[in-house]
Design a protein that fits this description.
about 325 residues; mainly beta; Methylamine Dehydrogenase, Chain H; eight-stranded antiparallel β-sheet; seven-stranded antiparallel β-sheet; 28 strands; disordered N terminus
């Protein structure tokens, strides 16, 4: 059975320019691994397997979530406008077959045995709720919130995202088997579990200042200010890794290994990171900050320092028609 491995990196400094990506590299995979990168291209939900585009629909898609691969099955969560009504629907595709979950937005998906967990936000009477659909049955977890990731670790199901208190303040929250754990003011973008340790990354508000933070077993550590982002966190052995960006004199793709930053590319943000042995895989997006003479906006994959442009266009800065959202590696 194929098993998804996740994120991470050794201390490898990659000084690369997305502008010079090699678009003709048809198979950027190395080793005994297939890479799957989820995203959007020309308003369609897509993924790239080993750098090759696979389109799963041609309808109007609002956003694409985090891809998951189990055995021979590829799951792609998203939000889309269907023929049913004018509302955005939480949907997912399994091997290209669509399942409509109703009004809302699907962000992450996990599979355990016969159970399929889809998380995101549900829309009920124009109120958005942090939501999980287990085998299509909806459970909500508080108004005006969302869930950004779901993972299964052993017999336990973890979900992470954001809820709001009675005063409307955001609360960084994760759930273990539907039991909520509050990490204080903020939000969680990603969660990882290793043994008895629970890691999370997102935003916190120490000293009433919006900051990039991570938590280990509820203990908060500040990585930087609001100019930094953390999109993904994972644990490998005794090390943990966070993928994101730093906006300091221009946005730079950055990951942190045990809290130490490594700059990867300029004018770009990482959406995900994966590793298998000594092979390092990164997914991200490039957008020129200045709209004058804007170069192509690109989605990219980096394998052991070699850059492949997955898609690009000359769209306006800030409104790219292509974007990656996640990456997983699967052993063949």
């Amino acid at each position: 059975m194929k098993c998804p491995f996740s994120l991470i990196c050794n201390s490898l400094l990659l000084m690369l320019s997305v502008c010079s990506c090699n678009k003709n590299n048809s198979n950027p995979s190395v080793g005994n691994v297939d890479t799957y990168v989820s995203g959007m291209y020309r308003n369609a939900a897509v993924y790239w397997k080993n750098g090759k585009l696979v389109s799963v629909n041609s309808s109007d898609v609002g956003s694409v979530g985090r891809i998951a691969v189990y055995g021979n099955d590829v799951y792609l969560p998203a939000s889309a406008f269907t023929d049913t009504d004018l509302y955005e629907h939480a949907v997912y595709w399994k091997n290209g077959k669509l399942t409509d979950l109703g009004h809302g937005r699907a962000i992450s998906i996990a599979v355990s045995g016969n159970d399929i967990y889809v998380v995101g936000e549900a829309d009920a009477n124009n109120t958005f709720y942090a939501a999980c659909w287990k085998n299509g049955v909806l459970t909500t977890y508080g108004a005006e919130g969302d869930i950004n990731q779901v993972i299964v670790s052993g017999n336990d199901v973890y979900m992470a995202g954001i809820t709001y208190d009675s005063a409307g303040s955001p609360i960084a929250t994760y759930w273990k088997n539907n039991v909520p754990v509050s990490l204080g003011y903020g939000q969680i973008n990603s969660i990882a579990v290793s043994g008895n340790d629970v890691y999370a990354v997102g935003y916190g508000y120490p000293n009433r200042t919006n900051s990039l933070c991570y938590w280990k077993n509820g203990q908060q550590t500040v990585l930087g200010d609001a100019t930094m982002t953390g999109s993904a966190i994972i644990v490998s052995g005794n090390d943990f890794y966070i993928a994101g960006s730093v906006q300091n004199g221009g946005t730079k793709s950055t990951y942190w290994k045990n809290g130490v930053p490594v700059t990867v590319t300029s004018a770009s943000k990482l959406s995900g990171i994966a590793i298998d042995g000594n092979n390092v895989y990164l997914a991200g997006n490039y957008t020129e900050a200045v709209p004058v003479n804007t170069p192509p906006t690109s989605s990219f994959l980096i394998v052991n320092g070699k850059v492949t442009t997955l898609a690009s266009s000359t769209g306006f800065s800030g409104d790219p028609p292509t974007a990656t959202t996640w990456i997983v590696g699967v052993k063949r």
